[in-house]
Amino acid sequence: MNFKNLREYLAWLYYQYLLITGIYVLEPWEKSIFNSILFSAIAMVVYTSYVFIPIHVRLALEFFSGIFGEQPESTVALMN
Q1: Higher pLDDT, 58 or 73
Q2: Which sequence spans correspond to the domains of the chain?
Q3: Sequence-separated (6 or more) residues with CB below 8 Å from residue 1
Q4: pTM across the whole model
Q5: How far apart are CA 51 and CA 47, in angstroms?
Q6: Residue 78's pLDDT is what?
Q7: Residues near 26 by Cβ (< 8 Å), separated by ≥ 6?
Q8: DSSP letters of the chain?
């Protein structure tokens, strides 16, 4: 894929974004505010997912491994 095709494809994607969100009817300053809010919301969701989902997955795995996994060994067996 050469540079011209890539540029045309990105322009087409941007045009689709404008049509789908309906911001093609907004003024430029309204578009920038809308895009800033949208980008901020997406950035917060990505950051929160990156920080908190691994913690919740680990806790869920520990919980379900305690229910369905092996039973813990007794302390007598651990001492021997």
Answers
A1: 58
A2: 3-68
A3: 9
A4: 0.62
A5: 6
A6: 55
A7: 34
A8: --HHHHHHHHHHHHHHHHHHHTGGGS-HHHHHHHHHHHHHHHHHHHHHHHHHHHHHHHHHHHHHHHHHSPPPPPHHHHH-
The structure tokens listed for 57 are 């997955």
Structure tokens at 35: 């895009």
Report which of 18, 41, 20 is spatially closest to residue 30, judged by C-alpha positions: 18
Structure tokens at 21: 């969100």
Residue with more model confidence, 60 or 9: 9
Per-residue pLDDT reduced to its tens digit, 6-58 = 999 999 999 999 999 999 999 999 999 999 999 999 999 999 999 999 898 88
